[in-house]
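for the recovery benchmark. tokens below, seq after
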């Protein structure tokens, strides 16, 4: 399931083109087993807590101060990963896919292939995310439901 801040109608066609449903952020959070949070970091507090409890939350956020400063980051009190993890204390948060551009990715065995770093405190969640099939698992299927907020 896909969601965004503009509502399900704005992404329904895209969702259908990849075999998923479109929904609101709360619907997507409730629906998914693994959730991608790809929003402006400044909006991290809008991510719903309760429906994400116990779920793997993939944090793709980066800090762009020109979109609004966050004092704790500017003063280097916390990291971007810590902000979302602290907001979602009952979730299994993993920082992932925020360190390279899509056009820089390469298939397995390719020359110049890069490693994608991940970070988080939950060992089991990191094992799922670093496993060979995790991205395939995120497709909208009955056995595993991945969503993007």
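predicted aa per position
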């Amino acid at each position: 399931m896909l969601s965004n801040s503009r509502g399900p109608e704005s992404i329904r066609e895209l969702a259908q083109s990849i075999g998923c449903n479109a929904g609101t952020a709360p619907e997507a959070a409730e629906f998914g087993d693994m959730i991608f949070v790809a929003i402006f970091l400044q909006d991290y507090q809008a991510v719903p807590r309760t429906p994400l409890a116990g779920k793997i939350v993939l944090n793709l956020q980066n800090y762009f101060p020109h979109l609004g400063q966050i004092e704790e980051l500017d003063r280097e009190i916390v990291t971007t990963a810590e902000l979302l993890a602290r907001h979602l204390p009952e979730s299994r948060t993993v920082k992932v896919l925020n360190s390279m551009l899509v056009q820089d990715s390469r298939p397995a065995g390719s020359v110049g292939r890069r490693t994608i770093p991940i970070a988080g405190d939950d060992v089991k969640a990191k094992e799922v995310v670093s496993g060979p099939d995790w991205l395939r698992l995120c497709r909208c299927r009955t056995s595993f439901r991945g969503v993007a907020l």
